Amino acid sequence: MTRDWMTPSCEKCVTLSEGVYIAAMAWRRLIPAGIALLTVAGCAGGPLQSVFSSPDSGNAVEAPPPAPAPPVDPAEVQANELGSVPVLMYHRLVDDPVSVYDRTPEGFRAELERLAREGYVPVTTAEFAAGEMDIPAGKHPVVLTFDDGDPSTITIGPDNAPAEGTAVQILQQVAAANPGFRPVASMYVNADPFGGGAAGEKALRWLHENGFEVGNHTFGHTNLRLASAAEGEQDIARGDRFIREAVPGYEPTTLALPFGARPRDAESALRGSGYDYTGVLLVGANPAPSPYSEKFEPAAIPRIRSQGYDDDEAEYGSSVWLDELAANPESPYTSDGNPDVISYPAGSGSPADRFVTTAAAY
Ligand SMILES: [Zn+2]
Fold first, then answer.
1. Cβ(71)–Cβ(44) below 8 Å
2. Residues 134-163: what's their mean pLDDT?
């Protein structure tokens, strides 16, 4: 089976041929020099109603219910729920990287610590694509994705926990040290993930039971641009069926395109005989539009390759992109803390039609 990390030039060619490089450059040019902070109070929705009752119901004097949290002023936290979301792409962790798709365990840990420090909270692709990102006010969602089911992503040890030094174990450690940093990620697998056989199926079940997403990467790591429409549909359906059989009761809802190669009928990656998805991930090379934005395309969600500053093509990698987002605080998606309202600064973008009634400019 051909794996992404063995064919970096192939992924690069796909990225360039699909104009993602051009899109990345255009995106950077469009970042405004600065947006003045608007101080007009906005529509933040009503306060959450307390549903608590006193446990001492036998007492004559009941304690008053806790006061509801006051609504957050979206301007105060610079909420922008039409902003961009980095969807980071990882493949495997190795001590000595051999391609731009590899990261060291130390590099991975440092990136997670940076994300925590800069106010990011991991969400899964499924949560992102469905627009169900319930994160605190002022925080930014980030999606952590892992392709190809490498054992360095997760291997379950005899104690039924992720083994030392695997990506999942490192993520758990960083989350434990940074309250609010959710230990969740989306794993895109083919046949024989995480070492294959019973070990692989055990890992898939552990992931599902612990809040991680298991997504489809096709059964045979098929290039959907080169395959016939029928072959492509069959291999997506076969990968979907494999996951459902390994994790009873679970259904994948998102797909990562092998090599980032889109089928000629892009919608056929989203739905076909045996599968129906809310999101399809590309390979490169810029932050993804908010799922509430008119720019969001469920069949073509861009990702950013995780990379340090000194790697080849670092200008399209995560370290440089996270710098860009940090330098332009109006650019990243910033939560208003209220899942019932989509808050955004007036003039910063337009919500998709289906979200117009729940979106509120301030
Ligand atoms: Zn792959």
1. yes
2. 97
Cite the DSSP H helix spans in the chain: 8-17, 20-30, 105-117, 125-130, 167-177, 197-209, 229-246, 267-270, 318-327
As a whole-number percent, the residues of the chain with pLDDT over 90 amount to 78
- Of the CA atoms within 13 Å of residue 152, those in its CB half-sphere come to 15
Cα(282) to centroid(ligand 1), Å: 11
- 183 has pLDDT over 90: yes
From the CA of 217, how far away is ligand 1's center (Å)? 7
pTM, to two decimals: 0.84
- 259-288 burial, b if ≥16 CB within 10 A, otherwise e? bbbbbeeeebbbebeebebbbbbbbbbbbb
CATH superfamily, with its number, for domain 4-36+85-328: Glycoside hydrolase/deacetylase (3.20.20.370)
Query: Cα(221) to centroid of ligand 1, in Å?
Result: 6
- Find the 219 Cα to ligand 1 centroid distance in Å: 11
Domain segments of the chain as ranges? 4-36+85-328
Report in angstroms the alpha-carbon separations of 236 from 18, 182, 212, 257.
21, 29, 20, 10
Cα separation of 32 and 126, whole Å?
Answer: 30
Q: What is the pLDDT of residues 255-310, one digit of tens each?
A: 999 999 999 999 999 999 999 999 999 998 899 999 999 999 999 999 999 999 98
Q: How far is the CA of 7 from the centre of ligand 1 (A)?
A: 10
